[in-house]
Specification:
The complex is a heterodimer of chains A (86) and B (292). With 86 residues, chain A is mainly α. Chain A is built from 4 helices and no strands. The two termini of chain A are 33 Å apart. Chain B is globular. In chain B, helix 1 crosses helix 12 and helix 7 crosses helix 9. The longest helix of chain B has 33 residues. In chain B, strands 1-2 form a two-stranded antiparallel ribbon. Chain B has 12 helices and 2 strands. By secondary structure, chain B is mainly α. Chain B has one domain: MetI-like (MetI-like fold, Orthogonal Bundle), CATH 1.10.3720.10. The chains are: A mainly alpha (86), B mainly alpha (292). Chains A and B meet through helix 1 and helix 3 of A and helix 2 and helix 12 of B.
């Protein structure tokens, strides 16, 4: 039980004041993503989505004549949305 | 400020080594993956071809087949290692005669180099001289030939990997089990919980971080396995055991196709990171404390 309490204490959400005192890159976001993330996490998620979208586009969409640049623009929009609101 | 500066100074050697041996080679592989490059050809220059290698990879049947075989291997091997490793760890938590000798013997495969493991298993599974086909034939009437039977070759590699790496899983899980507090188990016993309930509601939640760390290690290792497989089957028969590592090896060395080989490496790295990250998110990542 002691360990469980310790774990809960380690991962307990920060108060808004505590969070704002931290550097911007490590500030926890209260956005739409279901997990606690900092700026680096959200950039990572954006890159993962960008690569997955590009590979999917190459395989299924590009043969229909749509350029990969469309995928890149969509991925960039998603990335901005995730980094700002995620 | 002073302690911050001291911290950076103490970290500097590690960061420099990490940069030169980790970050720089990674960036170089990413750079090469956007090129067509055969350094042993008449014109050994790198030719930039944009995302052409990535466009090619999603239609490459050999790569997709390797990916499928690797995923099947990882699922079978890592799951089996986790289950057998946990059962052995639980067994080692109890006292029994010859425990220390058994534990030493059980750990021996870990100290063997994968290439040696591959060659030993090749000797054991060669139809004319191997002990395994001999006794399978004598006791059960089963003819085993990993040179001609794809399922036999695949299962042999899975069993070899389980034999080689289960001790690692056992050791990490023993470490996790030993560190568990006794109180919750005693309370559960008083409350009348049976073994399954105790495992599901107490043991498992408390050892999850160790389990996830072990799965990470085994997953990353299994996704890039080459030497054992190369030694045992060479990727055959046909391409039935041509795992991603073997595929990259064949693409880069015999074909000297460095650009495309780097592309496959980048994709394998991407898949490894994504799978591990998804595992982390689903098992360990702290959830947001939503208000309302």
């Amino acid at each position: 039980m002691t360990e469980q309490n310790a774990t809960q204490h380690d991962t307990a959400p920060l108060s808004e004041e505590e969070n704002e005192k931290k550097p911007i890159a490590t500030q926890e976001s209260q956005g739409f993503l279901p997990i606690e993330t900092n700026a680096f996490d959200r950039c990572f998620i954006s890159v993962v989505i960008w690569v997955a979208m590009s590979l999917f586009w190459f395989r299924f969409i590009e043969p229909m004549g749509l350029s990969i640049w469309i995928s890149n623009v969509i991925a960039l929009a998603i990335a901005i949305h995730i980094v700002r609101k995620g | 400020m002073q302690s911050n500066k001291l911290g950076w100074i103490l970290l500097a050697p590690t960061l420099v080594i990490l940069f030169f041996f980790g970050v720089l080679p990674f960036l170089y592989v990413v750079f090469v993956s956007f090129h067509q490059w055969n350094p042993f050809a008449a014109s050994p220059e790198m030719i930039f071809n944009g995302a052409e290698n990535f466009r090619r990879i999603v239609f490459d049947d050999a790569f997709l087949n390797s990916l499928g075989v690797t995923v099947a291997f990882v699922v079978f091997a890592v799951l089996s290692e986790l289950i057998i490793g946990y059962l052995l760890a639980q067994a080692f938590m109890k006292e029994f005669p010859g425990k220390s000798i058994f534990r030493t013997i059980h750990t021996l495969p870990l100290i063997m180099a994968p290439i040696i493991v591959g060659s030993v298993w090749k000797l054991m599974t060669t139809p004319s001289i191997g002990i395994i086909p001999h006794y399978l034939d004598e006791w059960f009437g089963i003819t085993m030939n990993i040179g001609t039977s794809a399922p036999a070759a695949f299962m042999t590699i899975v069993i070899m990997d389980i034999w080689h790496w289960t001790p690692l899983v056992t050791l990490t899980l023993i470490a996790a089990l030993v560190s568990l507090p006794r109180d919750p188990f005693e309370q559960a016993q008083i409350d009348g919980a049976n073994k399954v309930q105790t495992f599901w509601h107490i043991t498992l939640p408390m050892i999850i971080p160790a389990v996830v760390a072990t799965v990470f290690i085994r997953l990353m290792d299994a996704l890039r396995t080459v030497d054992e497989v190369w030694m045992l089957t060479g990727g055959g028969p046909g391409s039935s055991t041509r795992f991603l590592g073997v595929h990259i090896f064949k693409e880069v060395f015999p074909k000297t196709n460095y650009g495309y080989g780097s592309t496959i490496s980048v994709i394998v790295l991407y898949l490894t990171i994504v799978v591990c990250w998804l595992l982390y998110v689903s098992m360990l990542a702290p959830r947001k404390n939503r208000k309302g």
